[in-house]
Design brief:
Number of helices: 17
Structural class: alpha/beta
Strand content: 15-25%
Bound molecules: N-(iminomethyl)-L-glutamic acid, fe (iii) ion
Mean pLDDT: 93
Radius of gyration: 21 Å
Low-confidence stretches: 1-23
Distance between the termini: 32 Å
Shape: globular
């Protein structure tokens, strides 16, 4: 057993030993409720978010890596013979959760900064003093790829243990060509290993202007040049990322710099995401809409014109209320106004060492209800179908519908509203990705 900064070695050893067994035909039976999230294979908006498809007396049949049938249990049981029956008594079956925004490849935690903020030093001030993202960058540059791989693997197992079956992972703690490629190779190796959640890689070389380029406007500009002329071509050539992202925020990358970087990324064949209007409104949402980004993320400080711009676009608004909670901020993204304007809303953890060190996606659903004023059905759609849409995966992930990938999560409870209700608890009893057990299941097999 290897010890990690999170002390998760033992947990992971169990995961590795128990994995790989399943993969045949499965029948998830006796669930108190099956929540299908079935419907159009695209981002849901407005009233569509209010229907999560909650059914009692239903079961789910899986054939290989695909959902084969979903419906009333006696009917499905008659049609499917010889499958392994997973007993979901006292549980709710849902699509596996889709966590569409994380920074899961990093080294050490940054617990000291948490305390500094409590004492009144702000997030951006900590960064100006060389902490924040800079601290994680110094740390990640020094670590070997294998070390980062072991840490990320353990952390992804923890994400899966709370119900996540798809996880987007960004680079962004390297900020040199070599170290960004190292972080993305970690994601690629984890995806190839295939034992944890489904992974989607995002290049975030524009997470911060590295310390060695902060001296002058000219040196800042030369980092943007490194990003577009050196780092981006290498990432694309080695096929290490699907998306490009930029931290667009006053004091980090300006709207103009973000536009330059994202246009180059789009021209090179990457799809786009944007850290937009997280702490101050700076036209990030408008830029994401204008560039046709797949998602605009954070948005706690979005302006009215930003909401209008998203409403006229196909961009998903990915809200990260765990970040605001952990930073001790009281302002949350205007989720209701976004939904009322017709913008599809997704939720995600933003799992990272600075602003959201949580692997507990259901806790984010709690915040979705308690802080963002969404209903239980809305947070479930936000964490499944709309999370999938924020990764351009809505045609195969995020629903319990025949033909979709067999990605499921089983949670203890009798009513789907208990998922956001038991806040902070780990109610997840098992997850399956492409029909294979991912988080070891405590459920009896009949
Ligand atoms: O999404 N905002 C920028 N990036 C992360 C924080 C990263 C860090 O502090 O290490 C976020 O909040
Ligand atoms: Fe983030």
């Amino acid at each position: 057993m290897t010890t990690t900064p999170d002390g998760v070695g033992a947990d992971v050893a169990v995961h590795a030993a128990e994995r790989g067994g399943a993969g045949g035909d499965l029948l998830f039976v006796n669930a108190a409720q099956v929540v299908t999230c079935a419907g159009p294979a695209r981002a849901r908006s407005g009233a569509e978010m209010r229907d999560a498809g909650v059914h009692e007396g239903w079961c789910v049949a899986v054939r290989g890596d695909t959902i084969a049938a979903v419906g009333p249990q006696p009917e499905i049981e008659r049609a499917v013979a010889g499958a392994t029956r997973v007993d979901c008594r006292g549980c709710i079956v849902t699509p596996g959760l889709v966590d569409s925004h994380t920074h899961a490849v990093f080294g050490a935690p940054r617990a000291g900064e948490h305390e500094m903020r409590a004492a009144g030093v702000g997030y951006m001030e900590i960064a100006r003093r060389g902490g924040g993202i800079h601290a994680s960058v110094r740390d990640a540059r020094e670590r070997s790829e294998d070390e980062l791989f072991a840490l990320a693997r353990a952390r992804l197992a923890r994400l899966a243990s709370y119900g996540s079956t798809t996880v987007e992972v960004k680079s962004g703690y390297g900020l040199t060509v070599e170290s960004e490629l190292k972080l993305l190779r970690v994601v690629q190796r984890l995806a190839e290993e295939g034992s944890g959640p489904r992974l989607v890689a995002t290049w975030l070389g524009a997470h911060e202007v590295p310390e060695e380029y902060r001296g002058s406007a000219a040196s800042r500009a030369s980092y943007v040049k490194v990003l577009t002329a050196e780092m981006l071509p290498a990432v694309v050539q080695q096929q290490l990322a699907t998306f490009a992202d930029v931290f667009c925020e006053p004091g980090v990358f300006s709207t103009d710099e973000s536009r330059t970087i994202l246009r180059a990324a789009r021209a090179a064949g990457l799809r786009l995401k944007l850290h937009a209007d997280e702490l101050e409104p700076a036209g990030g949402a408008e830029l994401a809409a204008q560039l046709g980004a797949t998602s605009a993320d954070h948005l706690a400080a979005i302006s009215d014109s930003g909401i209008r711009a998203l409403a006229q676009s196909r961009t998903v608004a990915t809200l990260l209320p765990g970040t605001m909670l952990f930073l001790g901020r009281t302002r949350h993204a205007p989720a209701r106004a976004l939904i009322e304007a017709g913008v599809p809303v997704a939720l995600a953890t933003d799992f990272n060492p600075g602003t959201s060190p949580t692997v507990n996606f259901p806790l984010i659903l709690t915040l979705g209800v308690s802080q963002l004023h969404l209903s239980a059905a809305e947070v479930l759609i936000a964490a499944t179908v709309n999370g999938a849409a924020a990764l351009d995966l809505a045609d195969r992930v995020g629903q319990l519908t025949p033909g979709f990938s067999a990605d499921l999560a089983v949670f203890e409870g009798h009513d789907y509203r208990e998922l956001p209700y038991w806040y902070g608890d780990r109610r997840c009893k098992g997850t399956w990705v492409r029909g294979k057990a991912c988080h070891p299941s405590d459920l009896p097999v009949l």
